[in-house]
Each structure stands twice: as structure tokens, then as C-alpha cells.
Amino acid sequence: MDDVLIEKKKPFYPIIPELREYLEANNRLTRLNVNYEDLLRFRDYTPILDKHGNDTLWLSVYYDQSEFRELEANLNKIYTLLHSDGDTATLPYLKVDSIEFCTFGNSKPFRIRVRNVLNDNYTNYYIKRADASRVYGLELEDIISNNRINFLLYRETLIEEHILGIPGDVFISEKLPDCNEQEKAQIAKEFVKFNERCFIGLLGDMRSYNYVVIPIHDFDQVVYRIRPIDFDQQSYEGKIEVYDPYQFKENKVMLELVTQKLRPNSIEQYRKEVRSAIVKRILSDIDRFDHLMKVVKKDHIAPIEHVNQLKSDLKKRTYINGFDFCKSMGEVLDTGFRFTMKNYRNISHQ
Q1: Rounded to a whole number, what is the distance in angstroms from the first to the last CA of the chain?
Q2: Residue 307: which of 246, 236, 253 has the closest Cα?
Q3: Residues 128 and 150 in one domain
Q4: Beta bridge partners of 61
Q5: Domain count, the chain
Q6: What pTM value is reported for the model?
Q7: Are residues 184 and 319 in the same domain?
């Protein structure tokens, strides 16, 4: 399996006015007293190591005491905005346990851990520079999957809730070997569905550390779900392989699981199930979906050479002539969705 090359330094794309209007209409905008740049003023840091002593590429960062007190108060308010619509009743019981900064990747997020001192429960959330690609990815995940995504935007600062789950690379190396054969077959099924959803939604770079595996206990069995946690490569790359998670060498074990546990006709059936589910979710919130597509088609979120390469590759794979007329990455994305919806309607009326 050849490694799929990805452009490491993807530019940050600004939030255009039309996208802000969309986000305001869907209650994604807020007002804050702190932004991403404020968090960059830390005075010291220590590297964070995993349980094996390896560098995680995260830093625990520290601030002057007076500055931290003001920062903590504002970060606690953000927590209430994410989880209780800004209700301040819990503020006296909230404490910021840690602020961590990631040095890896494009977004370089801060991870904030807030603890409720009454019960010692804690919750993480992230503060990042706002990027249109990421916002479109978050919105699409909220619409086309059964996963709800909670995020807020203030000017050029993006706030995202933490997505619970076991990082895919950790799951593959530490948890998968202990799964029984039935569980492995179920994981293979979920990976097929995950791959199909990423491809239809043009969500790229789903290497094993960019998604989580979620075990769910159901009576006498454990079932698994897979969720993306990184949306930086939403509808950006021109290489079609970037949108197929099974193409990445980091997912080789998962691909082998699919080929070992599933028959070709079962794989095709699961792909059809995903397409059907996506269309049903879109149709249940069609006004919101149409509004989002109207905005993304106007936006510039990828170089024209990426657009031309991807629409050509997609036409070769899907035989959809409509890609020929696409002039932006948003139009490529919309064309794929419309074809999936049209095909679903044609089949459902047979």
C-alpha cells in the first residue's frame, strides 16, 4: 500500500460573510471575552508524554498568575456556552485544570480541561483559529451523520467540544487484538460505512489518528462506532485517494479486517445503507443543507488545480457528467450529494 501524500501546509480560509450569516441562522455564533491569540501568551510550557514515555506533541502551558485568573474566568464562561447555553449558575464550581497546546498539524489547537469541583467530573473542549474548511466539515458531519457536533464561532476563533472515543491508532494497536471475531466483523462493517461517508462528504485525511473508535455496551455484546475528529482537510485536496480512508497505510489493519471478514456483496450492501441514511438525514433538514450548499458553492476553499483534478478523478470513478461543469470545490461537493440524492429517489420509487 503506497502512502497517500497530503499537502501539509493547507492555508487557512477566512469565514466569508455568507458563511457567518449561515452560522448565525443556525445559532453557531457567540460573543467571547477571550480569543485564540490571547491563549498564545503563555510564559512557560512542559512537554506531555504518553504512558510509554513518548512525546505526544502536546505541551502543558502556563501563564502569569494574574493573567491566568482572568483567563480562567473567561474559559469557564465558554464552557457554560457550550454545555448550558450560557447559564452562569455553575460558574462558582468550575475550575480550569489545564491548558494544553498542540504543536502538530495545521490548526495548532488549545485543549481546555474544565472540572466541576462538586463532583470532580471534567470536560475538555478546544480553541482554534477559525478556518472555513473546518467549519464546513463540522456542519456536514452534523447534517449527514448521526453524530451531533457542538461548536461556536467568535470572529476568527473557533470553539469545539471534545469528541469522546479511543483514537484510531491507539485502538488498532492496543484494543483491536483483544476483540473477538464477532467484534472484528462488526468493526469491519463500521469501517466500510465510515469510508463511504467520508468519500461522499469529501472529508479527507482520515488516517487512524484523525478518527476515534467508540465502544458501546449493548446487553451481552460490545458494538463499535467510528467518528472523525479532524476536519481540516474538508473538500481541499485534488487527489481522490485522500477521501478514501482505506487508502492510508495507517489504516492497513482496518482494510485487512474488511477483506477478511466481509464478502463483496456485504460491503456493497453496507455502502448502500450509508448512502440511504445520508439522503434521509439531508431530506429531514433540507433547508439547512440547501443553505449550506449555496454558501460553499460561492466560497473559495481550494485551488482551482485541486478542483480540476478532483472533478476529473470523480468522473472517472462515478461516471457522473455533472462534474464537468463544476468551477469550485463547493460545486464538486454539491454535485456529488445531488447525484446521491437523485439515485436514492430513483431506487426508492422502483
Answers
A1: 40
A2: 236
A3: yes
A4: 45
A5: 2
A6: 0.93
A7: yes
